[in-house]
Amino acid sequence: MARSTAYLKTYRVGRKLRLKDIDPGARPAASSSREADDARLAELAIEIDRLQDLLYANGSAGRPPKLLLVLQGMDTSGKDGTARSVFRQCSPLGVRVAAFKAPTEVERAHDFLWRVHAVAPRAGEVVVFNRSHYEDVLVPFVEGWIDAAERQRRLAHINAFERLLHDSGTTIVKCFLHISKDEQRERLQARLDDPAKRWKFQVGDLETREKWKAYLAAYETALAATSTACAPWHVVPADSKSNRNLMIATLVAQALAGMKLKPPKPDFDPAAVRVV
Amino acid sequence: MARSTAYLKTYRVGRKLRLKDIDPGARPAASSSREADDARLAELAIEIDRLQDLLYANGSAGRPPKLLLVLQGMDTSGKDGTARSVFRQCSPLGVRVAAFKAPTEVERAHDFLWRVHAVAPRAGEVVVFNRSHYEDVLVPFVEGWIDAAERQRRLAHINAFERLLHDSGTTIVKCFLHISKDEQRERLQARLDDPAKRWKFQVGDLETREKWKAYLAAYETALAATSTACAPWHVVPADSKSNRNLMIATLVAQALAGMKLKPPKPDFDPAAVRVV
Questions:
Q1: Fewer CB within 10 Å of terminal CB in chain A, N or C?
Q2: Average pLDDT over residues A217-230
Q3: What NCBIfam families is this protein classified in (chains A, B) (predicted)?
Q4: How many folded domains does chain A comprise?
């Protein structure tokens, strides 16, 4: 059953962004039935697998397509869960997750896009960035390691870099997983309470949480400055996991369908080949 | 003995470039004495080693410096020889040569700057590009694989990319090794005649040689479009190896001296440390 996706426009980031005005608890992609949502997500995951196969098959085409999904959001906003959920039907052969932590010594010895460029999608590949180059305009700015002028330069570098990927056949989907501070408290507490999840908890996360408003403001600046025609941002209300998964799966399916991929033609005459 | 380097300005590429007007046989950096030139080059190589040590020592500084030397030129123009000669005194620890051949399948599956970015200099490092990302606006254009619009986009990407390296502390020196068609004939013939050098000869080089004028024109466009304030090009008359080596060694020594590097201060109180 095809559902209207007109709501997506509302969540696409334009020149200005006020995250306060977007309800993290909204569920525009979800219905009132959990079962129906699960069924719809299962459908979408199968469709994404079909399209990702086509993408992979076209990896040797004249202008091979690539897909980059950038996931950003506060701690516990569900970046891991999204990647698992949206691509659950896909073969790992063509889907790769690149997670970015605090840069290592080697990485810091280069410009901030160096490590990112190195893991960008190759022909026919889907790559999910779990955190990304956007961390480099968030953390260092909020922590006061860089000033507004340096942030501005980095934002320009990001736009030039994403333009390069775009010009080279990469479709870019960027999602900000928008959760509320209350929801984060519950999820952090759950991590603390559950011995199986406790490893995910870091004391430093609490320090970041204390700077919630500063981080939201930094996100507003970064997202508005980099939501370009070739690499737009969507704000995804993420207090509801169903909404988050459905909305991002829809964006991914739309991006893949928009490539209008066909199975590549063989470079030999199939009629002339005989299996004996 | 300090020599005037005022001639360098003449060879710095501006907004327009006519290679026909620059004599490949010129020897602005050389003298009439081969011995004096050799001695001067030996002096420069020692100075470059001293400065490269300082560069390496500052690899963990707050804003660590890096040096990128880009060497471009027709076949046999002396790119290998330059790298060997200019850095002959340096430790290989801090000097790396990255050679770019026709892109592999993996490399072609990415944008054209991907493989280049991956080997860009890290903090405190000198990297020499033997050929470079400039090949991607030369060969494909002359061969008709890309049109002028795509070349234009790539040139813009190159400028943005080099700006990124520059903003991240990389000093960029770019040299076009300018030889005459006659000189190339002699050098190619010498490769063919010398069994020890024959491996360097490829039949494809002759096809490229037939397109000499088209390649010169492509170089003129590329060099003029990318000779920016932060990454200027110099045309180096290269029929004379002495001139070529002296001129490039001078540019490298100037670039390193321009960083005004000092030995980094230790992060402990040396007076409080006792070796017992």
A1: C
A2: 98
A3: PPK2_rel_1
A4: 1
